[in-house]
Specification:
Elements (H helix, E strand, L loop, with lengths): L2 H23 L9 H6 L2 H4 L8 H24 L1 H9 L21 H5 L3 H13 L4 H16 L3 H14 L20 E2 L4 E6 L14 E4 L1 H4 L3 E4 L6 H18 L3 E8 L12 E4 L18 H13 L8 H21 L5 H9 L2 H14 L2 H15 L5 H8 L29 E6 L5 H18 L9 E6 L8 H7 L7 E7 L10 H7 L2 E4 L5 H11 L1 E13 L5 H14 L4 E13 L3 H6 L5 E5 L11 E4 L3
Parallel strand pairs: 4-9, 4-10, 5-7, 5-8, 6-7, 8-9
Antiparallel strand pairs: 1-2, 2-3, 10-13, 11-12, 13-14
Length: 628
């Protein structure tokens, strides 16, 4: 209800209640309202008999009950409770919290004391009181304690107590030895694992129950997938992805998450010191490398991921090119691994796909010497397919050639080195993958698609899903494939999530745009969204029932002489003919946010955001101020 209407209705109800009480109390309408009292009181009490001493008290008690009843009716009619919640209750909120009950202070570690680990609780409480324990330390030790209790083994609890008694707040440190990030740019709550993105303004477009509240995201929300849409410079990286990446890095230090962040060199995703592993693809000074096959356990899995990377963006409606590509790659990767005990490097893979006779002859000889008859049949099938017209290996070889360049000569090692793969996400690791400079668009798109394909394929296969695994991609242009959208649905049960940023949905194949929006539980629309993207978002967010008022003015017509005289007088004074206004109120179904509003009505540094949790809870699309 609008504030003016709420206040006016409350004042009017109060005045009417006071008027009713005045009329009754002064007996302007008689004393009929006293009949309940007359039924229960003796006549001599009413007329000053033996009970006259208590009569005034009884009368005033009855008056108070009647006044309370009138006040209750007036309060209900005037929406007094809502007026109090909106204006009165906030004035009573204190700026320091009330004192905690004895034994309930989290810094005193009551759960440890209840389990008999008083020595560890005393050490940690002392560190907290001395100011040497941070929120990261608290979250990390809470997780370590929960893991020890979950084992249900006394030895694990005793080990926890012993380590904490010795090291205090420094116990169970992250392998990097770090206890915080070099700098924080967002507001974090490591107890809930949330990071604040902004505040929901008090405006009619936002649902009333969410106005003036903060909006934050955590693993429970990121597990449903996050998609941020907006043109370059709209703030989706600095105001959405960077806080998310920063929160995940803090959770990794607390032993709660593992994160991979992908973006160009200039992307505002935090300093390199925020990460444990920084992979600069195409930069000779990079200390770390990326596994081309993502640590795939077998040739079929590696072929499927690589085919989705190389030809997943091919414009076919049913993914036939990807299936044929996966079959062709499996016919080469399987024999090569059986003979060489490793997958081929980029130059070797290109030679295999191009059908280099020397390489294939050498591979055949190695298979024959080792007695791999089944792999020889695979190689024979590949050679027969290569002789047919329209072989998919030609397209695969062209795509692999993008990576077979001098700038990447030292990367994607499949020999003795141990490049990073998604199998490492079973540990609380922080990884930053920096793509080549912006001049190499084809390479960046291919590598982004490679990382996304590896993530959605490897993470659901993790045996231990205690850690929340997340992938943050700054620019996912042409990195979304049918396998990506399908894989997003498998991430939530595996305690994983993905956050993608796109300039426009035009970078996604047309047949996947609606599917991508449906697969992402959290959607962020930044200012300047193209109308076509706004139209798809408006369809996904659906409609709601709202009240509309149709106002009609018509000229007043009176039949009586007096009425016509009054109308003539009003016309002479105002210069306008008297009119009668009629208001029609009706319920209509309208879009929550229209395509035009999303394209033109979202202010700078704001975004329209809808969230979904893994338990199925949803928020309507809300306009959020990302600056607060």
């Amino acid at each position: 209800m609008p504030t003016r209407q709420l206040v006016g209705g409350a004042v009017l109800a109060a005045l009417l209640g006071w008027l009713v009480w005045t009329v009754l109390y002064n007996a302007y309408l008689g004393t009929w309202w006293m009949w309940p009292l007359e039924l229960v009181m003796p006549d001599d009490w009413l007329h000053g008999g033996a009970g006259d001493v208590g009569t005034p008290l009884i009368f005033y008690t009855y008056y108070a009950l009647v006044a309370a009843l009138i006040a209750y009716v007036a309060g209900r009619a005037g929406h007094w409770p809502e007026l109090w919640r909106r204006f009165g209750a906030p004035l009573l909120v204190s700026e320091s919290e009330p004192p905690l009950a004895p034994g309930s202070d989290p810094a005193a570690w009551p759960e440890l004391r209840a389990a008999g680990a008083g020595a560890a609780a005393d050490r940690l409480a002392g560190d907290a009181a001395a100011g040497v324990m941070s929120d990261v330390d608290y979250a990390r030790l809470q997780r370590a304690w929960s893991a020890a209790v979950a084992t249900r083994q006394p030895e694990a609890i005793q080990s926890f107590v012993r380590i904490v008694a010795d090291d205090g707040a420094h116990a169970f440190l992250h392998p990097s030895g770090e206890r915080d990030l070099p700098a924080r740019h967002a507001h974090h709550d490591l107890v809930t694992g949330q990071v604040r993105l902004g505040t929901v303004p008090d405006m009619p477009k936002n649902a009333y129950g969410h106005r003036t509240s903060g909006l934050a995201v955590g693993p429970d929300v990121l597990g449903t997938g996050l998609l941020a849409l907006g043109p370059s410079g709209s703030g989706k990286t600095a105001r959405v992805l960077r806080p998310v990446a920063e929160a995940l890095c803090l959770q990794a230090l607390a032993g709660q998450a593992a994160v991979v962040v992908v973006g160009p060199a200039g992307a505002d995703l935090g300093p390199d010191g925020q990460y444990d592993v920084v992979i600069r693809l195409g930069d000779p000074s990079s200390q770390y490398d990326l596994d081309l096959y993502g640590g795939a356990p077998d040739a079929d899995t590696a072929a499927g991921v690589l085919a989705d990377t190389l030809v997943g963006d091919h414009a076919d409606d049913r993914g036939e090119t990807v299936r044929r590509g996966a079959a062709a790659l499996a016919q080469l990767l399987g024999p090569w691994r059986a003979a060489r005990r490793r997958f081929p490097s980029v130059p070797e893979l290109r030679q295999l796909l191009e059908g280099d006779p020397v390489v294939l002859s050498g591979l055949r000889g190695a298979l024959e010497a080792a007695g791999h008859g089944a792999m020889l049949r695979e190689l024979d099938a590949r050679e027969r397919a290569a002789a047919a017209a329209g072989d998919v290996a030609v397209l695969l070889a062209d795509r692999v050639a993008v990576l077979d360049r001098p700038a990447f000569a030292g990367f994607f090692d499949t020999g003795q080195g141990r490049p990073f793969s998604m199998q490492a996400l079973g540990h609380p690791i922080r990884v930053r993958i920096t793509l080549p400079d912006r001049g190499q668009y084809a390479v960046s798109e291919l590598l982004t698609r490679l990382v996304v394909a590896q993530f959605v394929a490897a993470v659901p296969r993790r045996r231990d899903t205690a850690l929340f695994a997340a992938l943050v991609v700054d620019d996912a242009s042409r990195a979304v494939t049918a396998a990506t959208v399908e894989g997003m649905h498998r991430l939530a049960p595996a305690n994983a999530g993905i956050a993608l940023a796109l300039r426009t949905l035009d970078d996604v194949p047309p047949q996947l745009r609606t599917q991508l929006l449906a697969a992402a539980g959290c959607r962020v629309a930044m200012p300047g969204l193209p109308p076509a993207d706004g139209r798809l978002l408006a369809e996904i967010w659906g409609t709601q029932w709202t009240q509309t008022q149709d106002v009609t003015d018509r000229q007043a017509v009176s039949d009586g002489a007096f009425g016509r005289g009054v109308q003539l007088l009003r016309k002479a004074v105002t210069g306008q003919a008297p009119t009668v206004r009629s208001v029609t109120v009706r319920e209509v179904e309208r879009e929550r946010w229209s395509a035009s509003e999303l394209a033109h009505s979202v202010p700078a540094n704001h975004a329209v955001i809808s969230l979904t949790s893994r338990s199925g809870e949803r928020t309507p699309p809300l306009l959020v101020d990302l600056r607060s």
